[in-house]
Amino acid sequence: MMFGFLRLSRNGQKNMHPEIKRIFALREALINVGYNPSEVDYMIATLSGRQDLRTLDAAALEKLETALEKQLSVAQDCIDSIHKTGRQPVSPTSASDQHYAYYGDSSNNNHNL
Questions:
Q1: What pLDDT, on a 0 to 100 scale, did the predictor assign at position 15?
Q2: Is residue 19 part of a domain?
């Protein structure tokens, strides 16, 4: 999926507006905590109304930045929660793997919550 802001990033960030640089930094941070790049790109595209980031006014850029910061905070809180429980984060390959990653060994069908 190709969005206008990705074309912008490929042209370099030297002369980019500070808020747009921050949005790209938040994009990278979300990817680094485990989001798929296309998920983050979709979030940005949806939150920006699929507009080129250079055409957004300061209020719209701030709203986008705030939304991405909140998403990053939620992701970091989830990761922290996993670490506090002693569980290891899992990257499941299918929905059934995800179920067993949470509930334990698939041979044990008695899943008490």
A1: 72
A2: yes
